[in-house]
Write a structure and sequence with these properties.
The chain is α/β, with parallel strands linked by helices. The chain folds into 2 domains: 52 residues, no CATH class; 210 residues, Rossmann fold (3-Layer(aba) Sandwich), CATH 3.40.50.410. The protein has 9 helices and 11 strands. β3, α3 and β4 form a beta-alpha-beta unit. α1 packs across α3 and α5 runs parallel beside α6. The chain is globular and about 70 Å long.
């Protein structure tokens, strides 16, 4: 997929509406829309947005409320704004599905980057794939503002689904090398979730605002297989002979549901976002759930 194909005009129009609802929650003592690690300093007014249930009432602009009749929040730009880090799992398993999961992951990452950059924030692309013993195949520089969008899209377009990934190690590396906490968006199928959750817990403890985007294909949710099959691991090439009868398919469905429940439970414990996306669904719907900080 080319960089230009990641965001079409209709998609961008939807993002222009959604970007005003994107909120980054970085653990810090500073006030304002974002958190800065350094206390004090000036905060520049950025814009208003409508009040939503759960917002801090201390941030309501009562004069704007009196004029418009609608409660509005004042948003500020801190001297130190956050970085939205987009950790994309680009292992071979993301090449599965129709359309492939990697296409949905890249388009969602592009959309989140657009929303951040359009708010004069910074976005950074990080690609999780094992390369020469390293967990990260690509670490792009943080880019700011709309001018940084073409470079971000090019980095995402150049992330094919191939090889293997150690997602837990990739998360750890991002946390260790991050100069300060930001928003950490992990886009993956999470089909090996065990150690990943421990690494994500350390990211949350370090102050990162963690968001999980769980990308699955329709075939994974509703497998259309039966009888004797040879199943090939997309990442290792290992072949497993299996008989897929109703009992086996039911066991598979239970394990997949357990994975989804595990991710959602982790998100609730850590005040994180967890959105499940199917590759054949409209991505705009998934993004609306993302900015609403859904847990599913």
């Amino acid at each position: 997929m080319s960089a230009d194909a990641l965001l079409d005009p209709a998609f961008v129009r939807e993002l222009e509406v959604l970007r005003r609802r994107l909120e980054v929650r970085v653990r810090s003592g500073a006030a304002g829309e974002h958190a800065a690690r350094r206390r004090g300093g000036s905060a520049e007014f950025q814009e208003h947005r409508p009040y939503a249930p759960g917002d801090d009432l201390r941030r309501v602009d009562w004069l704007a409320f009196a004029r418009s009749g609608q409660p509005m929040l004042k948003l500020f730009r801190q001297e130190e704004d956050v970085v939205v880090r987009l950790l994309v799992d680009a292992s071979a398993s993301l090449g599965h599905g129709e359309p492939p999961k990697i296409v949905a992951a890249r388009r969602l990452a592009a959309a989140i980057a657009y929303m951040a950059l359009a708010r004069s924030e910074r976005a950074q692309v990080v690609v999780a794939r094992q390369t020469d013993g390293r967990a990260l195949a690509k670490v792009g520089p943080p880019r700011r503002g709309r001018a940084g969008l073409p470079a971000v899209l090019a980095e995402l377009a150049a992330a094919p689904a191939e090889g293997t990934a150690d997602l837990a190690r990739a998360v750890e590396q991002v946390v260790v090398t991050a100069a300060r906490p930001g928003m950490l968006v992990v886009l993956s199928d999470f089909l090996d979730a065990g150690p990943v959750l421990a690494a994500l817990g350390r990211a949350a403890a370090a102050g990162h605002d963690v968001a999980l985007v769980h990308v699955l294909s329709r075939e994974e949710l509703e497998p259309n297989l039966e009888g004797d099959c040879a199943l090939v691991d997309a990442e290792t090439g290992a072949v497993v002979e299996a008989t897929l009868d109703p009992a086996a398919l039911e066991a598979y469905a239970r394990r997949l549901a357990g994975l989804c429940d595990e991710l959602a439970a982790w998100a609730r414990r850590h005040r994180a976002t967890s959105v499940r996306v199917t590759t054949d669904e409209p991505l705009e719907a998934a993004l609306r759930r993302f900015v609403a900080r859904a847990v599913e």
